[in-house]
Structures are given as structure tokens and as C-alpha cells.
Design a protein that fits this description.
Length: 165
């Protein structure tokens, strides 16, 4: 989003100053324009208004992460996951933050949990296998893919991923 896009959404705030969706969009725009103070203000307000809005939480967590406030990002995401137990995107975002900051067991647990939440989603199994492969745990990666093939025998991507591994 560029400054002209930001100007385009500004008039909507006259009628809807407390719309969490609009605040989230504006926060993301400010963040891309490197206006971290405005981004943080809008994102925090959006989450305050709608704590279960996954987009708002995601944008605020990203702003915290960019600002090197990783503890805040982790706490925000962990709390949101408790409030939105079936969220996939926030779990992925938290797993990435964990992995980036050396908390591999926590990242792995979240990726494993994704399979529990959506057992028929092949991408979660492939993602976990890729994580294991990146950790040089090829036996675990192979096991996950073989379990996926057994559970979802018609999913060609799982078979292809196993071959590529």
C-alpha cells in the first residue's frame, strides 16, 4: 500500500472512526510506509476494539516484531490463540516468531497442533515436514509425510513432497 492508497481510505474514517477493519488497513499502510508510531497506534486501537479480529492481531504482532518487541508479539499471539482456538494463521505467525527466536520446541508444537485442528489439510503436513527438514530431522519429515499419505491417500502433493525429500 502506498501513500495514495492511504489517502483513499482516509475519508471512511470520518463516518467510522472506530472500525477495527479500517484501523487495521491503515495500520498496515502506515507500517509499509515506515510510519511506525501511527501504525502502532492504529493497530493497538483495532485490537482493543476487536480482540478476536485475526487480521488486527496479526498486523499488531508484526508491528511489534518489526519494532524488535518480540516478547509483546509472542504474548499477543499466545493470548489471541486462547481466544480464537481454531486460528490457523495466528498459529503460523507465532510458530515463525518462535522459530526465528530459537524456541524450536514451541514452534514444532504449534505446527503439530495444526494437523490436529485440520487433519485433512495437506499443507499443514507439508509445512511440518519442511520444518523438520530444515532442522535436519529428515526421519521426522519422512514420517510426517508417510502418515499424511496414509491419512490422505489421494493427495499427490504429499507423495511429491516425499519424493523430493
Amino acid at each position: 500500500m502506498c501513500s495514495s492508497d492511504l489517502k483513499a481510505v482516509t475519508p471512511a474514517f470520518a463516518n467510522h472512526p472506530d472500525d477495527a477493519g479500517l484501523l487495521t488497513i491503515r495500520a498496515a499502510a502506515h507500517s509499509q510506509l515506515k510510519d511506525s508510531a501511527s501504525a502502532l497506534t492504529d493497530a493497538e486501537r483495532a485490537v482493543q476494539l476487536a480482540p478476536k479480529n485475526e487480521d488486527a492481531v496479526s498486523v499488531l504482532a508484526d508491528i511489534y516484531r518489526i519494532g524488535d518487541q518480540n516478547d509483546k508479539a509472542i504474548a499477543l499471539l499466545e493470548n489471541a490463540i486462547k481466544q480464537i482456538p481454531d486460528t490457523i494463521n495466528l498459529r503460523l505467525q507465532l510458530a515463525q516468531v518462535y522459530a526465528t527466536h530459537g524456541q524450536q520446541p514451541k514452534a514444532e508444537a504449534l505446527l503439530v497442533d495444526l494437523i490436529r485442528i485440520r487433519p485433512t489439510d495437506k499443507s499443514n503436513r507439508i509445512r511440518l515436514a519442511q520444518y523438520y527438514a530444515g532442522q535436519n530431522r529428515t526421519d521426522d519429515a519422512e514420517r510426517v509425510l508417510r502418515e499424511g499419505i496414509a491419512a490422505l491417500p489421494n493427495e499427490r502433493d504429499l507423495k511429491t513432497s516425499l519424493i523430493e525429500l
